[in-house]
Amino acid sequence: MVRRRTTDTDADDLPRYFVWVRGLEGPEPQKWMAMDFGVGDWKRPLVLAYLALPEEERHLPLSALARRYPPPRVDVL
Asked: Within 10 Å of residue 72's Cβ, how many Cβ atoms?
């Protein structure tokens, strides 16, 4: 089986959005293919911030994106 390098993938196959969501221990980064909030928009309250990624940043690992775009400040009750 031939393995493709991650740089050889089409831009359409890569996640388009970098999203900070509310996690159990604070904000957590995620990469999403689409801003689809699901049935009844149940995910919307969990999203703290999102960014549409330019094509040249879609291949970057989650850790690099998290350093480049830090989490928003979240007030803890």
From this structure: 9
Rg (CA), the chain: 14
Beta strand ranges found along 13-72 (DSSP E): 17-23, 26-32, 47-52
To the question of pTM greater than 0.90 for the whole model, the response is no
Dump pLDDT digits (tens) for 15-24: 899 999 998 8
Q: Which of 44, 46, 28 is nearest to 36 (CA)?
A: 44
Give 5: exposed, middle or buried? Use CB within 10 Å, 0-12, 13-18, 19+. exposed
Q: Where are the domains of the chain?
A: 11-68
Tokens of 32: 């999403």
